[in-house]
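User: We ran a pulldown and think these components assemble together. Before we commit to crystallization trials, I'd like a predicted model of the whole complex to look at. Sequences follow.
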Amino acid sequence: MKLKQLTYFLIISSLIALNYSCSKKDLPVIPYENSPVFNVTGTINNSAIDLHAGENNAFMLAKLEEFNGVPQFTGQLSDGETSMAIQIYDANTDIPTLSGNFIEKQNYVFGEQFGSTPLLKISVNDFSNSGEIEHIIWTIDGIQQTSSTLTIYEPGKYNICAELVFTNGEEAKTCNSIIVGYKNNAEFSINWDIIQNYTITAFLEAPSNTIKNVKWFIDDVLQSDSIELMLNNISNRFTLTAEVEFQNGVVSKREVFINKSLSFLNVEDFTLIGQKTSLKWDTSVSFTIVKEGKTYQSINDVNSSFIINDISDYGTNADGTKVKLLKGQLNSPFINQTTGATVNGSFQIEIGLGY
Amino acid sequence: MSTDKNNIDQLFSDAAHSQKAPQYNAAYWAEMNALLNAKDAKKRAFILWAFAGSALFAVLFLSLFIVNMDFNQAEKRYTQTALHNTVITEHSDVTIKESTNDQKTSTQNEVYNSKINQTDNSSLNTQSTITSLESNNEKSVVQNSNDLQTKTASGEKYSKDKLSLTYAHTMGNGTDKIYESKSAKLNNDRVNSNHDLVEENTLNDEYFDNEEVQTLPFDKTNSIHQNDPGDLFNSALKYKSNRSLTVYSKLSGGLMENYKTSRPYESGLLDLSLNLEMNFDGVLLRTGIGTQLTSNADLIVSQRAKVYGFGVTNHQNDLSYQNLFDIYIPIELGYKINATSFGIGAQANYLLTTGMVLNNYENHKLVNRETYNGSTEGLHTFSTQGYVWMEHQFTSRFSLGLKVGTNISGRIKDSDYFNQSSTTNPIYGQLSLRFNIIQ
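Assistant: Here's a predicted model for the assembly, 794 residues in total across the polymer chains.
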């Protein structure tokens, strides 16, 4: 091989290699190391709690859960023995476009404890025609109750059906959605009347809200979308349902049972009757701490505070739930759910919430 | 507070006994045993390599002398020495009588280690080219050459009918001298007569026609003589400098220790280079430029990151370099004896491109594997190698060689990546074929 040829060969080889090296792909960047993101440090009943997700088997579990039909933003930092759980209640439960949206606030009020006091109670006597009612079969979210009195102890949004058995043996059933412990953003009622020739007229009475549109159903069959309903040639016994959409986004459905010939066997809108709590859990927070086998529940007290320093989007967890990172300071009395004793807790919190 | 010694002793004793003594745990011993075995394995491998390398070098070194040993050359040489009026030779076959006109000859003191042809008819006035190296009873060596600084010894004509020999003569003054004479006629014709007596005799035949030539056997002498520094003379020999430049290409291939396993036969090394060799009387200086391909290297550098989130994730990226392509500049220093040369060398490598497999692990579980080309992440762009080399020239164009070396400065950049390889400076061996392009 001549020198010239060899030189050419080397030059060409070098150029090929150079070109090869210049067309390289970029390597993926390894994630940056960091310190634990989710942390809870503090004391409860003068006993220290020090949890850091990723250390000592501690793990942050953030979820968007549903509690009695209402979304809940929850997170639990636990090492298997000690844990702190946070729960923030949803708001705007009657507005589909807003329900489930996490509301960022500078501070969150503590939710009242529930479970021992009824938040909703509807008994036979609450109906205007209670004298005709033999008993009521209540069904909550498909689960039949044993009592003629509807009693609900937890906040939520319930699908409730009332099957009234009258003293003459007749039965009537209506179903409605009742929001308990949360704010209703629109109040309304169905006004109806039977006029001549058994013609039914119905309209909505909404004192504080503007109706956007309404749909009228007879026995679940759409009859009209006008603001007022006027129908004849309908059966003697039927359910009248109004599905209403308000300007503020509230969507609500009310149902009544009408007996054209025997009006005392009607079933009124039972969402408007009974005893309903005025307590609201909208955007309230509650904490549950487990330490050394004891469970402590935060209580709403004048000394309770959860001051937020920062809220940021953290990312997505393994099941695809988006997670927010809340950083703040918690000071609150806690109740020992075993002994009933109240203890103080104080924590620096960096905790995640699914949303 | 009590100062009683016994109390203090008791305090220490109690404190010591209050602590639990270390308990035997078989797992710890097994772990330590594994660590020690791993270290021993490395030591054994190193010793094995060192031993093998030393043995190989010794064999090559010995073979160098064996190959270059010229057994015929010694028979062409002879030397006459005179020492204390006696020239010591071995197995002198003939002692000749020599008559000189002016000098008494002490034939008993003359010993010839060559055969002399003597005739009656012609006397040759040998214009003795005498190299007088007075040795004052020391040994001297005279070279027979017209170019030697000569001295004509007046009155020291040697009357020999036919003399073509180198002989030793004892001067009348008792000084031991060694003379190396040569036919005058030959002086003009022969320049570099290397004491080849047979050849001289043949030439002398031209001048001694009809003379019977008898060739005496000679033997090599076993004495080497060294003059006093003051007796040294300037050689008139024209020194022929043996300086040369050679341009050659070299193709080398061999095996290398695998970075990952440290096993010697799992990686390959292929070199192609264009070189320039400067020969300074046997001392070689070489340089050039070349390309080097390292294959199946399994050079693994890794990055780790402990990332906290909902829990903790241990990320690890293993960059497993399989092929490394360098350009390099070698510098070699060596010595050439006849057709064989040997020496040491070093080369500076510039890493041009690579072939690499990237393995992504999360919590020690492989989650992704991808091949990349051209990446040099975690590696030094520049690295160096050192080696010993040996070559033997078989033809004017081709030589075969052997090279054994290792990395001097490692390839792995320790700053961002850590090394999981068993060896960082692998040993390699190569066979090379050299082709002289321009000589």
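Chain B touches chain A at residues 247, 249, 272, 274, 289, 291, 303-313, 315, 317, 319, 325, 327, 352-353, 358, 360, 372-377, 435, 437-438 (CB under 8 Å). That may be worth checking against your pulldown data before setting up trials.

User: Thanks, that helps.
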